[in-house]
Design brief:
There is one protein chain. A three-stranded antiparallel beta sheet has the order 1-3-2. The chain has nine helices and three strands. The mean pLDDT is 91. Helices cover 70% and strands 4% of the residues. Strand 2 (66-69) and strand 3 form a beta hairpin. The protein has two domains: 14-76, Winged helix-like DNA-binding domain superfamily/Winged helix DNA-binding domain (Arc Repressor Mutant, subunit A, Orthogonal Bundle), CATH 1.10.10; 81-224, GntR ligand-binding domain-like (Four Helix Bundle (Hemerythrin (Met), subunit A), Up-down Bundle), CATH 1.20.120.530. By secondary structure, the chain is mainly alpha-helical. Helix 5 (107-124) runs antiparallel to helix 6.
Length: 225
């Protein structure tokens, strides 16, 4: 399927636009950790030159989303435990700050409520990849409570790297199911303007999630070892 990207005169540079699209693919789970990327295939998919492609790969590598191995090629990154710890450190700073700025009727808060309902529907059909994608969108919407394009752009990188962590793990239900109800509770608290309780709920959420992800990543490493 072609994903060639059209540019208008006022659009961002083509390389940055392709970088954004590939990040979305990572967040949606369309690319797997450790997957080798074919320069010819990616260039053809997006309708870009080899020079533009190299800039795309350079940018994504600098963001920790791809890795270049000399004489072997370019691969999708597979974040380790140290990366997980840093990801959650960044999440706490950004997302707790976002919750502090929540206000009833904010479009991002309304979007969070819609995503909770979508996750519950996906849960009924045991579509855990879909649940994982919706959960990423939920946290993306949470950061949009800040109304800061810069924070939104930075958090895209955090989400893409986090999805690459989940992509290395088995048992998606175990990793995602507990957080559907926690997301629902958080939205209810924010809609009621109970910000302090919402922050407390989010802190519990992030700590629990970090511990579960680190434990699952360790189990996966032991099984492979």
């Amino acid at each position: 399927m072609s994903t060639k990207i059209a540019l208008g005169p006022d659009d961002q540079p083509l390389a940055e636009k392709v970088v954004s699209r590939i990040r979305d693919m990572l967040i949606d789970g369309e690319l797997a950790p450790g997957q080798k990327l074919s320069e010819q295939q990616v260039a053809s998919q997006f309708g870009i030159s080899r020079n533009t492609l190299r800039e795309v790969f350079r940018l994504l590598t600098s963001q920790g989303l791809l890795s270049h191995i000399p004489n072997r090629g370019v691969f999708v990154a597979a974040p380790n435990a140290a990366s997980v710890i840093d990801i959650y450190r960044a999440r706490r700073v950004i997302q707790i700050g976002a919750v502090r700025m929540a206000s009833r009727g904010h479009p991002a808060l309304l979007r969070m409520g819609i995503l909770v309902a979508e996750a519950k529907e996906a849960q009924k059909s045991n579509d855990w990849r879909r649940v994982g994608t919706i959960n990423m969108e939920f946290h993306r919407a949470m950061v949009e409570l800040c109304d800061s394009p810069r924070l939104n752009a930075f958090f895209e990188m955090v989400l893409a790297e986090l999805r690459l962590v989940f992509g290395q793990l088995d048992n998606s239900a175990h990793l995602h199911e507990p957080y559907i109800d926690m997301n629902s509770i958080l939205v209810s608290l924010l809609e009621a303007e109970k910000i302090s309780e919402g922050i407390e709920q989010l802190e519990i959420y992030l700590l629990r999630s970090e511990r579960m992800v680190l434990a699952a990543l360790q189990r996966t490493a032991e099984q492979k070892g």
